[in-house]
Design brief:
With 761 residues, the protein is α+β, with helices and mostly antiparallel strands. 28% of the residues lie in helices and 14% in strands. The longest helix has 21 residues, at 104-124.
């Protein structure tokens, strides 16, 4: 086959530039770019602002054409436009007004399309072979009607060339499409929409349409496409997306161009062997119904005798690799200090997270359900020692798992269960003693106790009285999680997004079942926080407190085991940054989520406009709350913090087009814990922060014996006023929580992160 790189490529640096050339670069350096707002010169003209693929702000005078409904894009409108006085043509795809206001599915498709287009442009925009791909000009995902701009298509669809291409042109089309798939596969992009309608030919070059249906390689296939162009697995939505899905489409097009027919799309066409020019397709397995049996894109290029553009000096230099090596060195240093010998980041340890003490007595719920009568509760505090466990034959009692005296997460003193301290809380917040002396129905008694609280007996004069949900005391070992970060970093939004995903069943694929720690308190949190966020409202800032109370709690169980209480603390950044009595509960916290704000941490020019709008500034000294909390927690395990930690790069949507961020934020979480992926994301996030932020922002990783790093987005966009104009779209918010659960031995199949028995916190 011939080389598909046409010598008269309009992107070649020696070619003459024409202002109307659709392949000419359009950006802030373009002669028609408006550097200052100007009145439109004509009523038919307006101004259009957008970001270039490198996220530089651009503003042009624009004249729009008529709207049309593009095929294959429900919820979108398309129109041609002319930018600047020079008349540079573009094509705009935007969400229809109704979809922009309330269509998260259409918005998600546009977001994926822009991410794929920008990734391709950033990677190959300066290469002459990029002409096989449609070139993106700019985008604005925060506009009232989000849009993306492309250079206009060149040539006519292959459907109009039926029967008119000679054998050499057919080979060129096949070779150039195979090259396009190779370029996309290098970035982990699966196009999924290679059809005769979506491929244009101008007599010398084939050009693939916009990646509006793209998925990331490895993501679950969504049913898409029709026979014969889409492979059977893609049409059925089975398995994970694979770049070799697109090779099936290329093979189907090649057969169609040569034979003039379309096949059933179930396997190799029956008459494939009759065409000598398709021998490479026949013998390579391209028509196998299983992607794993097809050749890889670079192998197909060799079979077609087409030079691989990525072996001719076009390889990208990964500037983050030295920082990944620094991560490896830091990880080795910490393991040497703690005496661990784990060869990889996969959790592997031989000892439990906490010291275990033999069981003392069954839980209250067990005694009620099994028919053992608990002592009668009273309203007064006990004058003597708490009553002992109930009498009864061991066969009548189900023993709970080994545990120890519960430590009150507020005052850090041990609390023994005492039925005389049970209360309920009425609508006005008053504590009402719980009297079940006349209640003989076990089911009713159990339901009442499920909503009960247990007063903490350690309240002293001058301190704020507090109580614990009863399930906290009578289930498995509690786990307390604190979110740490300065004011406005998004801790409250992140916690609400996490618990919203939990409420939607986000932990069930991992074998975890969740119930409220207290039904009424959980219902109030969902109503005031989670539902408000899901309805697109910005949450108010967390107020400062005089006493640290946890925001919400869950009962988490795995595989039928005794549930473990998990409580979440979300304090104001001012409370965390001050070394005050409010933060004394931190001494007993079991795990931490350090929330990092890119606007404060990252030295990226693309963030400057957002910083100006928000009034935030870069902080080379890191987060004050990080330093205060880390300095307050006792150090063990080689001078490191023993409590498991996760560093969450929140608001990652602000930097979503950075290649390393897009690699993770553009993917859904896998349906099972993958230690290799967890290690790879931590390594990438560390490298990204080490390159773009000062070392102070990595203090949680440096100081904590076990700390993973994650790209997350609690809202998926910036608020305007008190609302998110396109709704809240959480991304990967459960990743830090799953990591902590794995490190704490709560996730099925994951062992604790390391030996921590005997830790006194």
């Amino acid at each position: 086959m011939t080389d598909p790189n046409h010598p008269n490529d309009p992107n070649h640096p020696n070619e003459q530039r024409d202002p109307r050339d659709p392949n000419q670069r359009i950006g802030p350096d373009h002669p028609d770019h408006l550097r200052e707002p100007t009145p439109p010169p004509h009523p038919y003209y307006r101004e259009l602002e957008f970001l270039t693929p490198k996220e530089a702000q651009s503003r042009f005078v624009v004249r729009f054409g008529e709207d049309r409904r593009p095929p294959g894009r429900p919820g979108f409108l398309a129109r041609r436009a002319v930018l600047g006085a020079g008349g540079v043509p573009v094509v705009q795809y935007r969400l229809a007004p109704s979809e922009a206001r309330g269509g998260p599915e259409a918005y998600g498709l546009l977001e994926r399309e822009v991410a794929a287009s920008v990734a391709l442009e950033r990677r190959y925009g300066a290469e002459k072979f990029v002409g096989v791909l449609t070139r993106v000009v700019g985008f604005d995902l925060s506009a009232a009607e989000p849009f993306v701009l492309y250079r206009p298509p060149i040539g006519r669809p292959l459907t109009e060339w039926a029967g008119r291409l000679d054998a050499d042109d057919q080979e060129r089309v096949t070779g150039q499409l195979a090259m396009a798939v190779r370029l996309m596969a290098e970035l982990g992009i699966v196009h999924r929409a290679i059809t005769p309608e979506n491929v244009r030919w101008d007599g010398t070059r084939a050009r693939l349409c916009e990646p509006y249906a793209a998925l990331r390689a490895g993501e679950r296939r969504a049913p898409y496409g029709a026979a014969p162009w889409a492979p059977p697995e893609q049409r059925a939505g089975r398995g994970a997306a694979d770049p070799r899905d697109d090779l099936w489409s290329v093979a189907a097009l090649a057969y169609h161009l040569l034979s003039g027919r379309t096949d059933r799309g179930d396997g190799p066409p029956a008459d494939l062997g009759d065409y000598r020019r398709l021998a490479a397709l026949q013998h390579s397995g391209l028509f196998s119904p299983h992607a794993a049996e097809r050749p890889h894109p670079d192998e197909l290029l060799r079979l077609l005798h087409v030079p691989d553009p990525l072996t001719a000096g076009a390889e990208a230099v990964d500037v983050l690799e030295p920082f990944r090596a620094r991560y490896d060195a830091q990880l080795a240093r910490k393991r040497a200090l703690t005496g661990e010998r784990r060869p990889s980041a996969a959790p592997a340890a031989e000892t439990p997270v906490r010291e275990r003490i033999p069981p003392s007595r069954p839980s209250l719920f067990t005694r009620i359900i099994r028919g053992v009568e608990p002592p009668r509760p009273t309203a007064a505090r006990p004058a003597g020692p708490p009553p002992g466990p109930p009498a009864g034959p061991p066969s009548e009692l189900v023993q709970p798992p080994p545990s120890r005296s519960r430590m009150c997460p507020h005052c850090l003193l041990p609390v023994e269960f005492d039925e005389r301290l049970l209360v309920t809380i009425d609508a006005k917040g008053n504590r009402v003693p719980l009297d079940l002396s006349t209640e003989r129905r076990p089911a009713h008694r159990a339901d009442a106790l499920r909503k009960a609280y247990h007063l903490c007996p350690h309240t002293v004069d001058g301190d704020e009285g507090h109580e614990l949900p009863l399930p906290y005391l009578v289930n498995g070992e509690p786990l307390s999680v604190a979110l740490v970060g300065s004011s406005s970093v998004g801790k409250t939004h992140l916690l609400a997004a996490m618990l919203g995903e939990v409420e939607l069943g986000g932990l069930e694929p991992y074998g975890l079942k969740c119930l409220p720690l207290n039904p009424e308190a959980h219902r109030a949190y969902l109503r005031e926080r989670v539902q408000s966020l899901q309805q697109g409202r910005q949450l108010g800032r967390t107020g400062q407190q005089t006493f640290a109370r946890f925001a919400d709690g869950l009962l988490v169980s795995a595989g039928g085991a005794v549930p473990r209480p998990v409580v979440f603390f979300d304090l104001a950044g001012e409370d965390l940054a001050q070394d005050s009595e409010v933060g004394r509960f931190l001494m007993g916290v079991d795990a931490f989520v350090f929330v990092l704000d890119p606007l404060r941490a990252l030295r990226l020019p693309s963030l400057e406009p957002v910083r100006e709008q928000s009034g935030l500034r870069l902080r080379d000294l890191g987060d004050e709350a990080f330093a205060t909390v880390l300095n307050r927690i006792p150090r063990q395990r080689g001078g490191l913090v023993a409590a498991p930690a996760a560093l969450a790069v929140n608001k990652s949507d602000l930097v979503r087009f950075e290649p390393v961020v897009d690699r993770w934020l553009g993917r859904d979480l896998p349906g099972r814990l993958d230690p290799a992926a967890l290690h790879a994301e931590s390594r990438d996030a560390y490298a990204f922060l080490a390159q773009a932020a000062s070392p102070a922002w990595l203090k949680p990783f440096d100081d904590c014996a076990d700390c993973t790093l994650h790209f997350v987005a609690a809202t998926g966009g910036q608020a305007r006023g008190d609302r998110f104009p396109h709704g809240a779209r959480p991304r990967r918010v459960l990743a830090p929580l799953l990591s902590l659960f794995a490190q704490c031995g709560l996730l099925p199949g994951a062992e604790p992160a390391g030996p921590t028995e005997g830790i006194d916190r």
